[in-house]
Amino acid sequence: MAAAAAAVLLAGCQSSNPATGGSGSAYPGDLTNGKRLTIYVAGLADPSSGFFRVLNNGAQQAGKDLGVDVKYVYPASVDLASYTQKIQEALATKPDGILFLGIGDLDAVAKQATAQGVAVAFNPAPPVKDQPLRAADDVYVSRVGADEYAAGSAAAQRFVDKGAKSVICVQETVGDGTQTQRCQGVSDVARQAGVAYAHVAGEPDPGKTATITEAYLRAHPNVDAMVATGQPATAGIVAAKTAVGRPVQTAGFDVSPDIVSMIQKGDLDFTMDQQGWWRGYMSVLELVHYVRYRLVQSNYFLTGPAIVDKTNADSVAGLVSAGVR
């Protein structure tokens, strides 16, 4: 995939010449004959901060590198009806490609887009254990994202390797499919290792999660490791650990300036990074490659799990400030 991207970038630097087949395109073999492509990213929140800032930064950089227009849109509220309406508004402009984010069943909308000649990509990618290769009839030409089950498994394995005897997974938003996969990975590894496991329902508010987790830790003094499934909940479990004042291994999900600072200070052992910049960049790249060349990757592009801990937190800190990690 990196080699393909390099080839496209090199081609983009070349001026039009007869070798392009007289199409006027700077991209030899371009099925669109040099048309300026428009790709939509249907986000879920304002891209000025947080995870969606990083995802959009990656998407916009791909647009610059590939010579296409990337437009980020998002609904007024995060629910399937509002999100679908925003997608329909984007499709009405007749773009060349669009990225959906998985907050529900969007296959019918994806099929509608495909029927209109719009290529559709999806975030996230399915776990490798469930679907190692792309199905031939998949309506999405690209699926990009972290293997969330594998990320939960990796977090739990680090706990087990460091002697954990009782692990909890604090789910920031109960019912969220991505976070459920994360906790399932933690649960399976813990139980396979003979380690006690429990699921704790947290909240998207760090203060509420801190209160819930502190109470749980005081009621269960044997718990010696815990992972939170999102950024706010990660801050909450760190606060709970401080409040109870006993050694507890801690891990979170995603990267932010605050989370990296917690790792640098030793308050958080590590975080599982899904490398959101790549989720935006690679989705746009694969959409463009499909529209121009009908290229489709045979498996899914996994952006994680990656781990940020004390060994690499300092190098990641600057990238987080720049909106790349």
Task: Please describe the topology of this protein.
Layout: H1 2-12, E1 38-42, H2 50-66, E2 69-73, H3 80-91, E3 97-101, H4 107-115, E4 119-123, E5 142-146, H5 148-161, E6 166-171, H6 177-192, E7 196-201, H7 206-219, E8 225-228, H8 231-244, E9 249-253, H9 257-265, E10 270-273, H10 276-293, E11 301-304, E12 306-309, H11 313-321
Helix pairs in contact: 2-10, 5-6, 7-8, 9-11
Biggest β-sheet: strands ordered side by side in the sheet:
2-1-3-4-5-11
- Residue stretches low in confidence (pLDDT < 50, at least 5 long) are 1-23
Q: Percent range for helical residues?
A: 40-55%
Summed over residues and divided by their number, the pLDDT gives a mean of: 92
Number of helices: 11
Q: What is the percentage of strand-forming residues?
A: 15-25%
Q: Please provide the count of β strands.
A: 12
Note the gap between the termini.
Answer: 20 Å
Structural class call reads alpha/beta
Radius of gyration: 21 Å
Reading the helices and strands in chain order gives HEHEHEHEEHEHEHEHEHEHEEH
Per the principal axes of the C-alpha atoms, what is the gross shape? elongated
Largest beta-sheet characterization: 6 strands, parallel
What does this protein look like?
The chain contains eleven helices and twelve strands. It is of the alpha/beta class and 325 residues long. The strands form two sheets. It has a six-stranded parallel β-sheet with strand order 2-1-3-4-5-11, with helices on both faces. A six-stranded mixed β-sheet has the order 7-6-8-9-10-12, sandwiched between helices. Helix 2 packs parallel to helix 10, helix 5 (148-161) runs parallel beside helix 6 (177-192) and helix 7 (206-219) packs across helix 8 (231-244). It is elongated and about 65 Å long. 48% of the residues are buried. Residues 1-23 have low confidence and may be disordered.
